[in-house]
Amino acid sequence: EAQVTQNPRYLITVTGKKLTVTCSQNMNHEYMSWYRQDPGLGLRQIYYSMNVEVTDKGDVPEGYKVSRKEKRNFPLILESPSPNQTSLYFCASSPSGGAYEQYFGPGTRLTVT
Amino acid sequence: SQQGEEDPQALSIQEGENATMNCSYKTSINNLQWYRQNSGRGLVHLILIRSNEREKHSGRLRVTLDTSKKSSSLLITASRAADTASYFCATDSSYNTDKLIFGTGTRLQVFP
Predict the structure, then answer these.
(1) Distance between CA atoms of residues A95 and A111, nearest Å
(2) Strands of A76-78's sheet, edge to edge?
């Protein structure tokens, strides 16, 4: 089954404790991206990647890091999480960029206390 | 930066009625997409319309695009309770097709 998976689905952590949210797709897509969703603000893009070793900032990249060492994986790293990063996070992939249908993962609900 | 803005923010209708949602955007685009999100779940793609298209249909969905007004509308005909969800438009930019910018969404409630 074609899908995007994220882990963990739920995470409660404390300020400053480094964490990684994994994202993996099995569709051989070139493009992957991360979004955060907050009430009243819709989805905002954090980072995106056009291909392996190619990443670029979205609209809200501060406090986040990403890497794309393999085509299928695109982890999101929070080196020092803060409460304002409490949010619902989505990973998405597509064959190539924003001109194509995006396939979304199920989401990761992160709470930073 | 917010590219797409949906209107209305919330919409409540009865089953069988039509639901219309609007999306306005700011810069020139190559394409516009509509997505549905059921309560806290991942978004599901509904339809993509390119800048050289004016109207597109998919089942009970009808999307229009007016590039001169920088706006799009999504019409759901003969709505069902299962259509209850949030609906988002998303646009790329003719300056950067790598990025996709989502609007804030319309929350649709369909009562049986």
Answers:
(1) 31
(2) A4-7, A19-25, A76-78, A65-66
What residues of chain A lie within 8 A of the CB of B99, using their CB?
A: 45, 48, 58, 98
Q: Do A104 and B42 touch (CB under 8 A)?
A: yes
B97–A98 CB contact, under 8 Å = yes
B45 → chain A, closest CA residue: A101
User: Is B46 in contact with B60 (CB distance < 8 Å)?
Assistant: no
> Residue A44 and residue B102: Cβ atoms within 8 Å?
yes
One-letter identity of residue A19: L
Angle at A29 between CA B32 and CA B54, to 5 degrees: 15
pLDDT digits (tens, 9 = 90+) for A23-75: 999 999 999 999 999 988 889 999 999 999 999 999 999 999 999 999 999 99
Cβ–Cβ contact A27 with B under 8 A: no
- Per-residue pLDDT tens over the stretch B34-92: 999 998 789 999 999 999 999 999 999 999 999 999 999 999 999 999 999 999 999 98
